[in-house]
Amino acid sequence: RSKCMPLSNDGGIYWGMTRCTPIAPDPEGLYEPCTVEGSVGSGLDSCELGAMCWDVDAETLVGTCIGLCSGTKSAPTCVDANAQCWVPADGVISACLPICDPLEADACPPAQGCYPFLSAFHCAHDASRPEAGGAIDPCEHISSCDLGLLCAEAAVVEGCKPGGAWGCCTPYCDLADPVCSEPMSCLAYFTEGSAPVGLESVGFCGLEGS
């Protein structure tokens, strides 16, 4: 038995092609720990049919099995209803990324944060630095703020002095029980009716009307 898997055509960590690879004799299931053989982008992993080893550590070659998208190109689907299909422009990979809730302290594994991506939130490595990433610190990327903080547009964050950065870090807040430092208030992250199921209460501390 085999499965169609993305792999790197130069031995690196970026996928550039696909090929059929053998399925492990006793494969790991969805969201179970997994391993890859040889290198991160080898396409050889211990996950079951319809899944691939994701977020693999380059040294230990250990990751987690996530689903691959099914359905059609115009209407992709995921086995897990709480996941979103991500297909980069090159179309080599089609991964079902689990949705997380940034209001939950343990929403993601250690050393990862819950960040906005696609039309929801997903776990990714925490790229903040010890000397930066705190509240009102300048930020350039979605993962450059400390856990529990959003990289928001500079004009929205009270006291933000971005320098050459795009914005500043500001806390998430719960619309059902809002707590923010004045003059900021809890603003809805999603526009009305667009929030994924379970994320309707996600807000962030910002200035009204900015």
Task: Explain this structure.
This protein is mainly β and 210 residues long. The chain is 0% helix and 35% strand. The protein is built from no helices and 16 strands. It has strands at residues 2-7, 17-22, 33-35, 51-54, 62-67, 70-71, 76-77, 83-86, 95-98, 112-117, 120-125, 138-139, 149-153, 167-174, 185-188, 202-206. The strands form 6 sheets. Strands 12, 13, 14, 15 and 16 form a 5-stranded antiparallel beta sheet that branches. A 3-stranded antiparallel beta sheet has the order 3-5-4, with no helix packed on it. A hairpin with a 7-residue loop joins β4 and β5 (62-67). The radius of gyration is 19 Å and the shape is elongated. The mean pLDDT is 91.
Number of strands: 16
Which overall shape is indicated by the principal axes computed on the Cα atoms? elongated
**Quick check: average pLDDT?**
91
- Order of SSEs: EEEEEEEEEEEEEEEE
Beta-strand proportion: 25-35%
Radius of gyration: 19 Å
Sketch the major β-sheet. 5 strands, antiparallel
Q: How many alpha or pi helices?
A: 0
Helix content: under 10%
- Termini separation comes to 56 Å
Weakly predicted, low-confidence segments: none
* Alpha-beta content class: mainly beta
